[in-house]
From TrEMBL:
<dbReference type="GO" id="GO:0045892">
    <property type="term" value="P:negative regulation of DNA-templated transcription"/>
</dbReference>
<keyword id="KW-0238">DNA-binding</keyword>
<dbReference type="InterPro" id="IPR009057">
    <property type="entry name" value="Homeodomain-like_sf"/>
</dbReference>
<dbReference type="GO" id="GO:0003700">
    <property type="term" value="F:DNA-binding transcription factor activity"/>
</dbReference>
<protein>
    <submittedName>
        <fullName>TetR family transcriptional regulator</fullName>
    </submittedName>
</protein>
<dbReference type="InterPro" id="IPR001647">
    <property type="entry name" value="HTH_TetR"/>
</dbReference>
<dbReference type="InterPro" id="IPR036271">
    <property type="entry name" value="Tet_transcr_reg_TetR-rel_C_sf"/>
</dbReference>
<dbReference type="GO" id="GO:0000976">
    <property type="term" value="F:transcription cis-regulatory region binding"/>
</dbReference>
<dbReference type="InterPro" id="IPR050109">
    <property type="entry name" value="HTH-type_TetR-like_transc_reg"/>
</dbReference>
<dbReference type="Pfam" id="PF00440">
    <property type="entry name" value="TetR_N"/>
</dbReference>
<feature type="domain" description="HTH tetR-type">
    <location>
        <begin position="11"/>
        <end position="71"/>
    </location>
</feature>
<dbReference type="Pfam" id="PF08362">
    <property type="entry name" value="TetR_C_3"/>
</dbReference>
<dbReference type="InterPro" id="IPR013573">
    <property type="entry name" value="Tscrpt_reg_YcdC_C"/>
</dbReference>
<feature type="DNA-binding region" description="H-T-H motif">
    <location>
        <begin position="34"/>
        <end position="53"/>
    </location>
</feature>
Length: 202
């Protein structure tokens, strides 16, 4: 039997809970966050919060699951029909844009990884692994055709994550090094584009 669709008010309340939870979890971490803090950040009463989610763990898991969907989308959109180098550079830019536009989400995800990913380990070893495997196979195919230079494709994907997400996860460090008045993202976009173009251009 299908679930009853949520009303507009219910959808808005869930959105407010997710936004409040993101604010709290990204600052306090999972262990430091409380339902009272999430309630205050979302502007909903604690009983109202528990109407939608039975526990802090349920809110956290839903938040991470939704986040992972956003994180996977750019990799899913790497097209076998596209020009290989353009597809990789587009993926790099999308990941850098996400670090700029979604720093709280990136730090939340990084904190979960540091905890050993207890809430989403099945997703990481399932859907994420399958998608990376499929895209690594596509990259290998392009390399075998001579359309990209040979390099370990799975490590290529991991290095893109590391080099783009660093700007969100270590934003304080980046801005301390570059100075508070210097926007790191335009320079990072040019640098990473040149880096991966030099690495991969046949």
């Amino acid at each position: 039997m299908s679930e009853t669709p949520m009303t507009r008010i219910q959808l808005e309340n869930r959105r407010r809970i997710m936004e409040g939870a993101l604010e709290v979890f990204s600052v306090e971490g999972f262990r430091g966050a409380t339902l009272d803090q999430i309630s205050a950040a979302s502007g909903l009463s604690k009983p109202n919060l528990l109407y939608y989610f039975p526990s802090k763990e349920a809110i956290y898991t839903r938040l991470l699951t939704d986040l992972l969907e956003s994180w996977l989308q750019p990799l899913e959109e790497m097209s076998p029909e596209g020009e290989p180098l353009d597809e990789v550079l587009r993926y790099v830019q999308r990941k850098l844009d996400m670090s700029r536009d979604m720093p709280r989400e990136s730090r939340l995800f990084a904190n979960e990884m540091l905890r050993g990913a207890p809430q989403i380990s099945e997703v990481l070893s399932g859907r994420l692994r399958d998608l990376v495997g499929a895209r690594a196979a596509l990259l290998s195919h392009w390399m075998a055709e001579g359309r990209l230079k040979q390099t370990p494709p799975d490590h290529l994907i991991i290095s893109i994550w590391a080099l783009t997400q660093h700007y969100a996860d270590f934003e304080v460090q980046v801005r301390a090094v570059l100075g508070p008045d210097r926007d790191p993202y335009p320079e990072a976009a040019d640098y990473l584009s040149a880096l991966f173009r030099n690495l991969l251009a046949p």
